[in-house]
Amino acid sequence: MILDHEPPRTGQPYPGPAYPGRPRSALHRFLGGSPAAVLVKLLFLSILVGAGMAMLGLTPGALFRHAYDTLQALLHLGLDAFQDFGGWIVAGALVVVPIWLIARLLAVSK
Questions:
Q1: What is the dihedral of CA 72, 76, 79, 83, to 10 degrees?
Q2: In the prediction, which pLDDT does 55 show?
Q3: What phi-psi label fits residue 11: left (phi over 0), alpha (psi between -120 and 50 degrees) or beta?
């Protein structure tokens, strides 16, 4: 007989809290585990990433500067494309609008 507090026997992991009688706190759910365990994981990953960056000669300032320069170059590239696109619209409108206006005037006169 399966009771409500027993995990399902379908081969799936138990979907409830770690301790079935005790609901998980909002902080526990947000962090994805206990605060101490998450802190230890983040500390370990920070040490690994910091050591890797030091081996490659990277600094946080250089990374932010490079990211800023990249975003600035993409922004300028995008604005240049819109400037070209706007020029195409104006050039096309100088031809299309008068032809459309003449066609409308001829259609109304019929």
A1: 170
A2: 93
A3: left
What is the radius of gyration, based on Cα positions, of the chain?
A: 32
- Burial (CB < 10 A; 0-12, 13-18, 19+), residue 28, is middle
**Cα-based angle 67, 72, 77 (whole degrees, multiple of 5):** 125
Using CA atoms, how far apart are residues 57 and 39, in angstroms rounded to an integer? 26
Residues whose CB falls within 8 Å of the CB of residue 20, separated by 6 or more in sequence, listed in order: 5, 7, 14
Q: Are 38 and 44 in contact (CB under 8 A)?
A: no
Global pTM exceeds 0.70: no
Nearest alpha carbon to residue 33 among 18, 44, 20? 18
CB 100, CB 92: distance < 8 Å: no
